[in-house]
Amino acid sequence: MFKELKNRIRQKVISEHGGRIFSKEAVDEKELRIVILRVTNNLNSREGMGLMESDKEVITGELMDEFMGFGPIEHFMRDPQVTEIMINGAKKVYIEKQGKKQLTDVVFEDENHLNYLIYKLLAPTRHRVDELTPFTEVSLPDGSRANIVIPPIALNGQVVTLRKFLKDINTAEDLIKLGTIDKRMGDFLITCIRARVNIIFSGASGSGKTTSLNVFSWYIKEDERVVTIEDTAELHLSQDHVVRLEARQANIEGKGEITIRQLFRNCLRMRPDRIILGEIRGAEALEMLQAICSGHKGSLVVLHADSPQEVIYRLETMVLTSGVAISLEAIHRHIAAAIDLIVQQEQFPDGSRKVTHISQVNGLKDGQAVIEDIFVYEADRIDHNGNVCGRWKASGVIPKFYPALKKLGIELPQSIFDKD
Prior knowledge:
The chain has 13 helices and 15 strands. It is of the alpha/beta class.
């Protein structure tokens, strides 16, 4: 009865005030609490349910969490140690906390309760999920990202994966404290950003590559015009002169799709000083390489790959899908001319995320782009607490663009590249 009553109150509040609750505008918390209590009291008196004041407070509190936040998972969204929330149907909620995945005791009342969360996530956006489009990805106002998959392709019920935006990771010093990089690598990458070096941040899903890109984008000068292009908006730059573009899926009639490739072509006419690609996945790779070669320096890109060498192979494959007749050697010439650095990141078994390689692309050999490691992380052992122990080492390779730094008035001691 309690569950049924709460559902009726929820539906009544939505029917009368849903337009405001699900809009992008902020809802007044005190006003919403008054609305919920009024609806609860009306139902209670009309149907003689005999609810105690404590019952009303419980119902109001739970519905406030749903309307103002995320219901049963609201406390996970507030917990800074929780980085990801994985909802596998109404009765199984997993979280990633301090890098480790664990099943929680949190459950949704039923599928309708979980559907409400999905509706709340989608309502302020132009995205949808239905039988024709059973999956989508949306960005939340705080920068977190939600991926939603529903039946019939999700066999165990609705699946919602929430990747939280980490507000406490803003600077290179924050990454150093977390053990993602060491100080000389941080100094080097800050220098590379200021010197307008073209960088690909690569790694597997959840390795932290987008977070690292976000951090180092903070070192872009304020007077530069930056255009970001994303499939789902995740990047949060601190600069004022930022133009954010987001791809769009087709409508219910199959029309209106705007692809990353189309956005990239258009952004070249927007006078960008820098272009940041939230993730490169397909044929837009050719346009990106050509744009960088034609003078758009300082570009930053995210790409899924397991190693710096795999980055080259993936770019090669993506260019081949562009439909443009181009030889493999020409593709590798473009890659060698356009890409300066690859920052490879990995999540280790203990949950830690580390940059494992900072590698440069240095010319061609036998028609293939050449990869040279500048810094490498070497894991030595796993201690008694299960933590991965190791250290970063310099290979002794001096970046090809190092001589140009002094011409730009940028000081960086050459000694940081001395071989360990």
